[in-house]
Amino acid sequence: MIFSMTTAVSHRVAGSLFGLAYGDALGKPTEFLSVAEIENRYGPTGPRDLVGDPALVTDDTQMALAVAWALHDAPEFTPEAVQPLLRQRFLTWAGSPDNNRAPGMTCLRACAELSRGLPWQQATVIDSKGCGANMRVTPVGLLAIDPDTLAGLAQLQAGLTHGHPTGLAASELTAYAVWLLRAGAALAELPGLLTDRVDEQRKVYRDDWLGDLWRRAGAATPQEFIAAGWDECGAALGRLDAALSAPDEGGDPCRLTGAGWIAEEALATALYCALRHAEDPVGALARGARTAGDSDSIAALAGAFVGAAQGMAAWPTRWAEQIEYADQLAALSADRD
Ligand SMILES: [Mg+2]
Question: What does pTM read for this prediction?
Fold first, then answer.
């Protein structure tokens, strides 16, 4: 927060994109370890430095890059323009030899269906709210767009693979959080602003972006379909508020706000890490990486949030050349205003 008054927007974009990759890289080796195993290996703070040159990321960053490039290439931000670009980027990712980073089953299954040329509403895994759509959405929040366009883009990119309404709503909230930070909001303001968004959007089904997805889910009405997703996100934000109102005991945040394998928990637990360690950005990543849950996704989202708030000054300078895909991250950062 101490940087927020002077951090230029372009540095916030870079800070968020690189922060996502940094958190992902720190959480990569700890994703399937218990907290005790992580502390045995890294000490009580968890991992605080990148390892390897390049320091490898996971599918989280790979898919976020896919989203970012699709947005970069889009002539306009409409569903007609963006959907084919997202589809192509996801299929390229799915078929890449570098897609060997413990990718999520939902993404693999949906991409197999997308590759058959089906409408995305038929290809999507209709009942999945895994965090795979959420961990890749933050580039949407870095665009200079209005909140309705942000909502449509965030939900569309989610829906291509994850058709559950909570996956859609959590992706929008995650992108909206980054968008607010990019515009200068403070990290501490996010829980309240996101809860307001839940209340405002609860009955808003974006049929121009989502088409007949609600029918395929078997919902009685579009409003009923989407409200179920916002309600689950609202409950997760309620647990976040409760966790933040208590003293930080320093334990595994997954015990407070969820393990993060599902979308709304990944958002809440990443926000917990970001807010608790706003004055120590690397500490926010380490806190996310030192969890029994989905460590890479939690740390990645925490990095995207803190980086959007504080810019590249949040991160050790040398990491910018050590991280995998540094060239793409830099190109996408330079691309923005
Ligand atoms: Mg991953």
Answer: 0.96
